[in-house]
Amino acid sequence: MSNPAACPVCTLENTYRDGEMNICPDCGHEWGDAVEASPADEGSKVVRDANGQVLVDGDSVILVKDLKVKGSSITLKKGAKAKGIRLVDGDHDVDCKIDGVSLMLKSEFLKKA
């Protein structure tokens, strides 16, 4: 039994087969034998919210937990809404404004509105 090809998203070869799907335990990506054109092929990264929904530029999002802002006394409250987000590369993958403050947030603390 041979391992399937390398993961098309993270390009690591630590993959395995589960039924008809190939699975990458490193990034969690799943794909079938006929690999469709994935966003990684186009050079863009798929950003998902806390519920697994794909985020795109211009979406509105809601915070799912209170967050303290580093270097400030501001605390962002659960349920605060950000409109018109921008997706960026890096550790904090969402650029937005909440209550007039420009912030870079991780998508794991957001849900699509």
TrEMBL record:
Domain Protein YjdM C-terminal stretches: 47-113
SUPFAM superfamilies referenced in this protein's UniProt entry, alphabetically: Prokaryotic SH3-related domain, Zinc beta-ribbon
InterPro entries, alphabetized: YjdM, YjdM_C, YjdM_N
Organism domain of life: Bacteria
Species assigned in the record: Roseateles oligotrophus
Protein name as it appears in the record: Alkylphosphonate utilization protein
All residue ranges annotated as the Protein YjdM N-terminal domain in the record: 6-31
One Pfam family named in its UniProt record: Zn_Ribbon_YjdM
